[in-house]
Structure formats: structure tokens, C-alpha cells
Design a protein that fits this description.
UDP-galactose 4-epimerase, domain 1; two-stranded parallel sheet; 12 helices; binds nicotinamide-adenine-dinucleotide; binds 2'deoxy-thymidine-5'-diphospho-alpha-D-glucose
């Protein structure tokens, strides 16, 4: 890993990964290709450690000519592919962009990598790697008592977002199987931490609670996710890229499965403790049941034995400490919060998804 193309590196996990690589891999140079959609934030790339090794390029992963040029100009040996449309609720209201970015975009990157690394033999194949960052949502939803998902679990995506990610996983798999592209895939559970766009549960709850807005709980709030602190995800990806076996997929998860409502209560408790003088304390009085998400997956749980046995990875951060750190990060970055949540696109999204949503779907 010398010259790395990171796609989607201005988003939540991508920007945390850029920081992680700059801190942990002194020999690596990064080209960061990001379209800067509503979710891609230049603010996420401020104050990078060793910024001279990071080049930002605003552009679309579906732009084949641009991707071809970047691979050649920077002799790219490693692609770590994060760029995607990522919000399930947006995929329900507008699935088309998910098909374009997540499927066509991944296909475009795969074709460019195949041409440059395999057809043109630009670099030794042992020295190149395409890593595709995917999600646990490709596996569908677990019933009570069903075992955690392993790498062998059949795909059963339920939302347009999950289906588009499943399609992209299949494309990556096929490029390894058919063309010998040195590829790996990781399927990870719900991330949280600094710089997450506040359309997702945890940052939405933190920002709404601090400003005294309702905390919208979909349905009965008993849905379960497998929460993972973002830096733990970055460490797992870095290990897979450096030491994972080509052609393999690896499950990544947090070993943390409380229901949504418990996560929300924990955030409220943390805020009560940090801001006892706030007019919104106790924050749990803001909790408001709203209509459920259509097709809402009930439970996710990842079996992480494979990555633990092969690469020695396991999550480092406990859920409580990770949440405390995350709440503190949002409280101490008012400029980031103002810039990200103050813009008209975000306000329009909140209006579309919540104001018109209606009351509890219990
Ligand atoms: P995000 O929504 O915060 O960021 C996505 C980034 O992709 C943004 O910077 C956006 O500008 C960029 N992008 C979108 N379309 C693009 C295009 N056509 N060309 C170039 N850039 C484009 O997403 P995230 O939460 O950081 O997720 C990153 C990846 O990790 C995604 O592939 C997602 O499916 C996967 N993932 C996310 C989670 C999670 O909990 N957030 C969990 C598992 C896997
Ligand atoms: O599991 C990994 C996936 O996690 C990633 O692949 C996705 O990119 C990421 O968005 C996330 O998907 P979820 O749908 O699980 O995340 P979200 O934060 O949107 O919702 C988490 C849970 O909280 C889910 O059960 C829905 C619920 N929820 C969410 C919002 C935004 C609410 O109850 N109220 C809300 O306002």
C-alpha cells in the first residue's frame, strides 16, 4: 500500500479513515475522490495530520475518464471504496440515486481497475488491492433467537439501499472470480462517532436533544443494531487491506446490541450529566414516538470470529465510552454542527422525513 485511492473520503467513515491512514501509515500517499454530495463535507478534512500526503479531488466515481486518469497519474496500487449513497430512509423516498452511485459507481471503479491493473499489467498483481466497504444490511433482518450472521449467510437485502450494496458486493466478487482482480470485501454493522452526518440516529439524537427538539423514535424503538465506534471500523479495514486474504469477505461488528430506545436513553443520560443546567434537562422528556420506517429491519448481529481469528481484530471501544466521546465531540464542534445542520438541504430533508411523517406507528 503506497498510493491509495480512497473514494468517499469526505464522508463520515471515509474521512475518519483518511485520518487513520495518515496517522498509522507514514509511507502512504492518499488521493481522495469525493463528489461532495450533501453527505460529503469539506469540514471533515480540516486539520488533517500530515496534509501534504493527502490530495482531494472533487469528482464522481461514475466518471470513468476521471477515474482512469487518477489511477495512472498517481500510480494507484490500492483502492478503498467508501463512496455511496448511505441513508436507508432516503433510499425509500428516492431509490434511483442509490442504483446509480452504489451499483454503476462500483462497476465503473471495477472496470477502471481491471483495465489498469489486469489488462495493462501496470503493477505486479501481488502489489494491488481493491477493497470494497459494505454493510451488514445485505443479510436482511434477524428474528429473536436466530444466530448472528457469518460470511456464509445468504444475502437477503430488504431496502433499496441494502439491495444496491448487495449488488455492488456481487460485482466485486465476480471481478475477483472471473478476472482475478485482487479484491476484498468487508460487511460492517452500524458505525457511530465524530463527523457522522446528522441524518443518522445517534448524531440526530444528540443535536436534537441539545436544541430541545423532539427525539423521533421509529415504531416501538425495539429495533436492534450492532453498534461499532468508527475508529474500530477503520482499524479493521486497514488490517484487511494489508493482511486479509484476496477474494475473501470479512464481517465486522461491535458486539453491542441494545435496542434503539436504550441508545437514546443513554445519550439523554450523558447529556443530563454533561449539561445539568440545560433548559432541556431531563432530555428524555423529548423522546417522541413517530410512524415506523417502511420495511424496517428488526435486528442485526454480526459474527466476527473470522476477522478475529485471521487478523486478530476485535472492537476496542465500549459502547458507553464511545457514546460519551461522540457526544463530547458534537458539543465541542459548534462550527461543524452549524455548517452541516444549518444548510437548506438538511432542513429540507428534516421537513420531508419528519414533519410530514405522522405519529407513532406502534
Ligand atoms: P456518508 O454518507 O457519510 O458518505 C458518503 C460519501 O460518499 C460522501 O462524502 C459523498 O459525497 C460521497 N459520494 C456519494 N456519491 C458519490 C459519487 N458518485 N462519487 C464520489 N463520491 C460520492 O457514508 P458513510 O456512513 O461514511 O459510509 C461510507 C461507506 O461505508 C458506504 O459505502 C456505506 O455503505 C458503508 N457502511 C456504512 C456504515 C455506517 O454505519 N455508516 C456501516 C457499514 C458500511
Ligand atoms: O447496518 C449498517 C448500516 O447502518 C449502514 O450500512 C447504513 O449506511 C447506515 O445508515 C446504518 O443504517 P440504519 O438504517 O441502521 O441507520 P440509521 O441511523 O438510519 O437508523 C438506526 C436505527 O434507528 C434504525 O432502526 C432506525 C432508527 N431511527 C433512525 C432515525 C434516523 C429512528 O428510530 N429514528 C430516526 O430518526
Amino acid at each position: 500500500m503506497k498510493n491509495v485511492l480512497i473514494t468517499g473520503g469526505a464522508g463520515f467513515i471515509g474521512s475518519n479513515f483518511v485520518r487513520y491512514l495518515l496517522e498509522t501509515e507514514p509511507g502512504v500517499r492518499i488521493v481522495n475522490l469525493d463528489l461532495l454530495t450533501y453527505a460529503g463535507r469539506p469540514e471533515n478534512l480540516q486539520d488533517l495530520p500530515d496534509p501534504a500526503r493527502h490530495l482531494f479531488v472533487q469528482g464522481d466515481i461514475c466518471d470513468r475518464a476521471l477515474v482512469d486518469r487518477l489511477l495512472r497519474e498517481h500510480t494507484i496500487d490500492t483502492i478503498v471504496h467508501f463512496a455511496a449513497e448511505t441513508h436507508v430512509d432516503r433510499s425509500i423516498l428516492g431509490p434511483g440515486q442509490f442504483v446509480q452511485t452504489n451499483i454503476v459507481g462500483t462497476f465503473t471503479l471495477l472496470e477502471a481497475a481491471r483495465q489498469y491493473w489486469i489488462v495493462e499489467k501496470s503493477l505486479p498483481l501481488e502489489a494491488v488491492r481493491f477493497h470494497h466497504v459494505s454493510t451488514d444490511e445485505v443479510f436482511g433482518s434477524l428474528k429473536p433467537g436466530e444466530p448472528a450472521w457469518t460470511e456464509e449467510t445468504p444475502y437477503a437485502p430488504n431496502s433499496p439501499y441494502a439491495a444496491s450494496k448487495a449488488s455492488s458486493d456481487h460485482l466485486v466478487r465476480s471481478y475477483h472470480h472471473t478476472y482475478g482482480l485482487p479484491a476484498t470485501i468487508s460487511n460492517c454493522s452500524n458505525n457511530y462517532g465524530p463527523r457522522q452526518f446528522p441524518e443518522k440516529l445517534i448524531p440526530l439524537m444528540i443535536l436534537n436533544a441539545t436544541t430541545g427538539k423532539p427525539l423521533p423514535v421509529y415504531g416501538d424503538g425495539q429495533q436492534i443494531r450492532d453498534w461499532l465506534y468508527v475508529e474500530d471500523h477503520c482499524e479493521a479495514i486497514s488490517l484487511i487491506v494489508r493482511k486479509g486474504r484476496v477474494g475473501q469477505t470479512y464481517n465486522i461488528g461491535g458486539d453491542n446490541q441494545p435496542p434503539n430506545i436504550q441508545i437514546i436513553h443513554t445519550i439523554c443520560d450523558i447529556l443530563d450529566e454533561l449539561q445539568p443546567q440545560s433548559p432541556h434537562t431531563p432530555h428524555e422528556k423529548l423522546i417522541t414516538p413517530v410512524a415506523d420506517r417502511p420495511g424496517h429491519d428488526r435486528r442485526y448481529d454480526m459474527d466476527i470470529h473470522k476477522i478475529n481469528a485471521e487478523l486478530g481484530w476485535k472492537p476496542r471501544q465500549t459502547l458507553h465510552d464511545g457514546l460519551l466521546h461522540t457526544v463530547n465531540w458534537y458539543l465541542t464542534h459548534p462550527d461543524w454542527v452549524a455548517s452541516v445542520s444549518g444548510n437548506s438541504e438538511y432542513k429540507a430533508w428534516v421537513e420531508q422525513n419528519y414533519t410530514k411523517r405522522g405519529e407513532s406507528g406502534k
